[in-house]
């Protein structure tokens, strides 16, 4: 069971979480024009567009043929989260009778390229970016929802305006205690260990692992900190840094078994201290406080990871919190890198 917000959906009731009952009233797409393609993936193509009724920029997410249930889930979640801090806004839903395609019209954010940003961001920018992301996630989790695909490509950040939006809710899901969820979610470089070992009873802390991966990328100036060729290699990359001993304790605690023919996954790997990854170039961003926070996010055991609110309360964010009156007031202890 999740340490926080475990019973939110039970308290709010089926009207909040039962997306299969949702009836979507689709509007016509006539007022929206496509300007250029800006992305896409397995489930959608994404375009920059314009709302001709007011000339405002927007994002047009054209959904590929997918299960109606998934479309309902995404729309329900976006509507439930409407107006939440740093969550992308859903402006409209449209159906084109000619192409028979459905599209979601979203808020537009002038996004900075991650490949540029992670190499050039200052320590204060990292703190501001991460704090805003955690603000979004604490709100989302408090509404009983797991994002399940947190990664830089799903975080739009307007560097000039310091405006962040968490996007792409196609894999998001409502959390219910003791419920088994699909493990084929997330993107490989940001998948939590629970997904890589087939643990289906995960919770909001899955998103926190992904935040830890993003923090590691930013402070160590690596585009992807754990970069495996496939899921087994991804797990191996994690084990070579967090060590075998902690991994075996994690498996034992939850009654998990690793089935693999990869001999490297069966070898002993000592834990690597975080300061080992600090260079003269990254020393200004890979500080004692940032490494301590990182250590508390990247834990095998999801129950040992900080929650989004606890992470915000870490002393790493003291300077940012002074500018954010609604931030948590308590601070996490700043003792050692490797306390458990």
Describe what this molecule looks like in 3D:
Catalytic subunit of a constitutively active serine/threonine-protein kinase complex that phosphorylates a large number of substrates containing acidic residues C-terminal to the phosphorylated serine or threonine. This protein is of the alpha+beta class. It contains twelve helices and nine strands. The chain has helices at 8-12, 14-17, 68-80, 114-120, 123-142, 193-196, 205-220, 231-242, 244-253, 288-297, 308-312, 318-321, and strands at 32-40, 44-51, 56-63, 90-96, 101-106, 145-146, 155-158, 163-166, 173-174. The strands form three sheets. The protein has a five-stranded antiparallel β-sheet, with helices on one face. Helix 7 (205-220) packs antiparallel against helix 10 (288-297). The chain starts with 7 loop residues before the first helix and ends in a 19-residue tail after the last helix.
């Amino acid at each position: 069971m999740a340490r926080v917000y475990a019973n939110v959906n039970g308290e709010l009731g089926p009207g909040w979480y039962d997306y299969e009952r949702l009836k979507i009233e689709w509007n016509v797409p006539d007022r929206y024009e496509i300007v250029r393609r800006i992305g896409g993936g397995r489930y959608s193509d994404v375009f920059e567009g314009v709302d001709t009724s007011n000339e405002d920029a927007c994002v047009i997410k054209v959904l590929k043929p997918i299960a109606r249930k998934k479309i309902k889930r995404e729309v329900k979640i976006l509507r439930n989260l409407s107006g939440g801090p740093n969550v992308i806004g859903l402006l409209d839903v449209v159906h084109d009778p000619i192409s028979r395609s459905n599209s979601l019209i979203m808020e537009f954010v002038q996004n900075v390229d991650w490949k540029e940003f992670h190499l050039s961001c200052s320590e204060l920018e990292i703190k501001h970016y991460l704090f805003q992301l955690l603000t979004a996630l604490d709100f989302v989790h408090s509404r009983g929802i797991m994002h399940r695909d947190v990664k830089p490509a799903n975080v739009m950040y307007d560097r000039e305006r310091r405006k962040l939006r968490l996007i792409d809710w196609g894999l998001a899901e409502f959390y219910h205690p003791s419920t088994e969820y699909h493990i084929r979610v997330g993107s490989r470089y940001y998948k939590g260990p629970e997904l890589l070992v087939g643990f289906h009873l995960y919770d909001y802390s899955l998103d926190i692992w992904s935040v830890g991966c993003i923090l590691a990328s930013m402070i160590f100036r690596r585009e992807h900190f754990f970069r495996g060729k496939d899921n087994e290699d991804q797990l191996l990359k994690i084990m070579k840094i967090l060590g075998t001993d902690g991994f075996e304790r994690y498996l034992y605690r939850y009654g998990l078994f690793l089935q693999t023919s990869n001999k490297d996954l069966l070898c002993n790997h000592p834990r690597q201290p975080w300061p080992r990854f600090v260079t003269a170039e990254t020393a200004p961003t890979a500080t004692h406080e940032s490494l301590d926070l990182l250590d508390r996010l990247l834990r095998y055991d999801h129950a040992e990871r900080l929650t989004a609110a606890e992470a915000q309360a870490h002393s790493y964010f003291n300077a940012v919190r002074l500018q954010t009156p609604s931030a948590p007031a308590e601070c996490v202890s700043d003792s050692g890198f490797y306390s458990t």
